[in-house]
Amino acid sequence: MCGIAGFVGAGSMKDLERMTRLLAHRGPDGEALRVDSPVYLGHRRLAVIDPEGGRQPMSTPDGRYSIVFNGEIYNFLELRNELIQKGYRFSSDHSDTETLLIGFANAREKIFDRLNGMWSCVIYDRAEGLLVGARDRFGKKPLYYYHQGRHFGFASELTSLLQHPKAPKSVSQLSLQKYFAYGYIPSPRTIIEGISKLPGGFWFQFDIRSGELRLHRYWDYLPEPSNREKDAQALADELLVHLSQAVRRRLVSDVPLGVFLSGGIDSSSVAAIAKQKISELKTFTIGFQEASFDESQYAKRMAAELKTDHHVQYLSLEKSKEVLLSIVDRLDEPLGDSSLLPTFLLCRFAREQVTVALAGDGGDELFCGYDPFKVLRRADFYSKLMPKPAHFCVRLFASQLPVSMRNISFDFKLKRTLRGLSFPQKYWAPVWMGPLEPKDIRALFHTKISLEELYSEAIEVWDSCRHLDLVTRIQKFFIKLYLQDCVLTKVDRASMMNGLEVRCPYLDYDLVEFARKLPSHWKLRNGVTKWILKRALDRVLPRQILHRPKKGFGVPIARWFKDGSILELSEKRLTSARFRAGYFERKLYEHRMGIADHRLYLWNSWLLNQWLAK
């Protein structure tokens, strides 16, 4: 993993130095800068593959192409051999960066469609006067940019890009509204007006001479359920082959490697397959003293079953929250997922022994593993039969239920479900998952809100598969928005803050292609989530792991706001003129008195306030 930065046009070497050095946590093993006026390229390196031969910025022997690259290409040896057969020569021993660079020289932008991995890169073509950049299919590796006429800048993180004097600096009001609608800021928007995130599956071309910027989509997650029915066991066997291949591809490393192990299906399956290849496999778990948030007993059980070299660190969440301010201070842009804290702690713990870790992210999205999928059939039935006036009476009654501060409590899920059902189906997923619903966003910002504008990204995803069933359409929301801009962003930031590379086998291209062609009834059957995945892992995982309830990786933010302990970390308050005066204080009072559960809004507000105060 690495950090990349650069610009075209106005600016100096000092600007490039500032931009690049702010990415030191992403690449603690080295820094290199290159200027070929008017193009400036900077790189921070975390050496994982070919430490000697993979230094960047890297150029082709004739000097035409130069690259700065962040990520890993898991099929680079296959691509390298193809290029050697075509007559290309390599100067490195086994650098995936050089494979991508030579591959681009051979096939131009078509090379991006051949890559199986996670990456963001920018390539300078001196002969054509072009800057070409790309991001992996799911946006696992970040790439921010701004464009103003003939000025263009890019970086792995927003804080780096903001160091350039030409970069916009104003906070976007619409992005703030979307932040409270989703709990994150969906691509291509960012918190800063005029700065964009390149969406996953896109590449751009910037013409240095004319200043023209063009974006191209090279891949999209398009569900294509196959009408060809197979035997369930045959499908399960095929799935296991793809997953096994995905894990083995991600075990290639020139530095120490381990696996995150929570004791859930996804991480346990990754560990079990990795153990077949690595006899002395290290696994890592964070355990918490608070019972309702602790999964360590399941991880220990799985580690004992596999006989891994297991490492557990037990922490008090009360004490752990003291690191929150340092995390937020280094956070690229506001991200409302509270599991950022335990993810950071896990990455910090693992980094003490390894440089690369495998994780189970992506399994819930690809195979419908989240709780909302369990209620979709009943929700659809309810929404069709329940008159709106009666629904709002039911919702009013549910609001009177006692408030629980537990992790994903029953009343929390019920109230969330009814909140979403107050809207048409295309809004269900974002309203279920977001910190605030539209009427509350309207009250917070004291302005009119357009649902179409507020949820434009979710609507676009919904409309893109209008011919498909409800489960598949909701699933695409989780894959295209929640996975990219929340889950993977959280993992990237938490791992890179600790100089750790995290690899996700469930996002392997071949595995994803298999999953996207599966009809939804193989993923969700009779209320059972991940049905085909569980069938595939039946001979790999113990039944007590395979069929245990999903817990989630949470922290007790509800209790922290109820007892006020989190507010003691900082005396800053939400005083910005962007928000209605007293709104935060009123929600905090209702939460403390047990009138309502406002944990998600309070957390997102608190985190945003710390970020804005930087």
Task: Describe the fold and architecture.
This protein has a 6-stranded antiparallel beta sheet. A 6-stranded antiparallel beta sheet has the order 4-5-6-7-11-12, with helices on one face. A 5-stranded parallel beta sheet has the order 15-14-13-16-17, with helices on both faces. It is globular and about 75 Å long. 41% of the residues lie in helices and 16% in strands. The model has no long low-confidence stretch (mean pLDDT 92). By secondary structure, it is α+β, with helices and mostly antiparallel strands. Among the domains are: 2-217, Glutamine Phosphoribosylpyrophosphate, subunit 1, domain 1, CATH 3.60.20; 232-368 and 473-546, Rossmann fold (3-Layer(aba) Sandwich), CATH 3.40.50.620. The two termini are 26 Å apart. Strand 13, helix 7 (265-277) and strand 14 (282-288) form a beta-alpha-beta unit.
CATH homology superfamily of the domain at 2-217: Aminohydrolase, N-terminal nucleophile (Ntn) domain
Low-confidence stretches: none
Taking the sheet with the most strands, its summary is: 6 strands, antiparallel
CATH first level of the domain at 2-217: Alpha Beta
Rounded to the nearest angstrom, the distance between the terminal CA atoms is: 26 Å
Number of helices: 27
Spatially, the strands of the biggest sheet line up as 2-3-1-9-8-10
CATH topology of the domain at 2-217: Glutamine Phosphoribosylpyrophosphate, subunit 1, domain 1
Name the average pLDDT. 92
Kindly state the percentage of residues in helix. 40-55%
CATH architecture of the domain at 2-217: 4-Layer Sandwich
**Assembly state here?**
single chain
Rg, rounded, reads 24 Å
- Overall body shape: globular
Q: How many strand units?
A: 19
